[in-house]
Amino acid sequence: MNLTDLENSWINQFQQPLIIAGPCSAESEQQMLETAKRIKATHAQVPIFRAGIWKPRTKPNGFEGVGVIGLNWLKKVKEEYGFKTATEVANAHHVDAALKADVDILWIGARSTVNPFTVQEIAEALKGTEKIVLVKNPVNPDLALWIGALERLLGQNIKNLGAIHRGFSTYQKTKYRNNPNWQIALDFKSQFPNIPILIDPSHICGNRTGLAGITQEALNVGYQGAIIESHYNPDEAWSDASQQITPEVLGEMISNLKVRSTGLAGFDDEMGRHRTLISDLDFQVIELLSQRMRISEKIGKLKKENDIAIFQPDRWKVITEYAAQKASETGMSQDFIEKVFKAIHEESIEVQNNIMINK
């Protein structure tokens, strides 16, 4: 059996968009029950309560989760408020403990997905389970690793599968904690339209700003839901405080989400995907231009220190020759490329001029 053969009928038991919500980390029984109580009180469609029991951290000596005791708190959430429950597993020990606690949905985190040995260990521990297993994209932008993780699970006869798009790590600082790189996620969705995919706006944004926008954008291109971090007192959260929202804000956000119709023979969906990709590329272009201008500042400082003129005719000649070459390679208009490069070059001169005058 291949991934394309899976029916994944598990998604049909939930109203769409499927929302999985709860704190980044389980901290105490009181925190878990209070958060669950307030999510329930919003009357928002949140059938699944999530909480991190084990937390992979970048550096040692940080809070790495409460461990197995937190699974008992998840049980109480299920018993008292009727939620299904979900948590992340990162090794066979986690799997064994979560299955014994009857956690309904397990997910493999981005740092685990990147390691085939880890995924294989988890898959073998889960062999034959009928639990729903979701796989986050790997931290690095590698579609093959993401697909490979799901294939390893299927290889162990695990058939209730789904994916979570949580964005990709980047060395450069941007407005996102993890860049969406929509192209990779949409390539996944295009290859496996039968595998439900959820958005993780909390990890993409890294803060409370933009959560609703990213979630709606995902629904616009056919995602089936979202996994969102919510805490009854986000500012005091033990992990990822800045990206968690209160249950009340969560409820309002969910009420404003719109599930896109798949009518008009898919025209709207396809148009939405193209527009999302254009927005993603535009963002990358702006970020690259910003990096380029920071380098121009450094060049300006060097020119000032060494009394070198800002405008270098030979440099402009190189740029025009490069524009002609790229036009030939890409099939774009040479005139258009020259205009773009000229505008960039003029802005670079302006940046360097400011260095000469003011610094």
Description:
Keywords: Transferase. Residues 265-356 form the Chorismate mutase domain. It holds the Pfam family DAHP_synth_1. The chain is an alpha/beta fold. It folds into 2 domains: 3-260, Aldolase class I (TIM Barrel), CATH 3.20.20; 267-358, Chorismate mutase (Chorismate Mutase Domain, subunit A). The chain contains 13 helices and 8 strands. The chain has helices at 29-41, 69-81, 92-100, 110-113, 116-125, 143-155, 182-191, 201-205, 211-220, 247-256, 267-305, 313-330, 334-358, and strands spanning 18-22, 48-50, 84-89, 105-108, 132-136, 161-165, 197-199, 225-229. The chain has an 8-stranded parallel beta barrel with strand order 1-2-3-4-5-6-7-8, surrounded by 6 helices. Helix 1 (29-41) packs parallel to helix 10 (247-256).
Compute the number of helices. Answer: 13
What value does the Rg take, in angstroms? 24 Å
Q: Give the beta-strand count.
A: 8
Q: Structural class given helices, strands, pairing?
A: alpha/beta
CATH architecture of the largest domain: Alpha-Beta Barrel
The stretches of 5 or more residues where confidence is low (pLDDT under 50) are none
Strand fraction:
5-15%
In CATH terms, the superfamily of the largest domain is Aldolase class I
**Series of secondary-structure elements, N-terminal to C-terminal:** EHEHEHEHHEHEHEHHEHHHH
In CATH terms, what is the fold-level topology of the largest domain? TIM Barrel
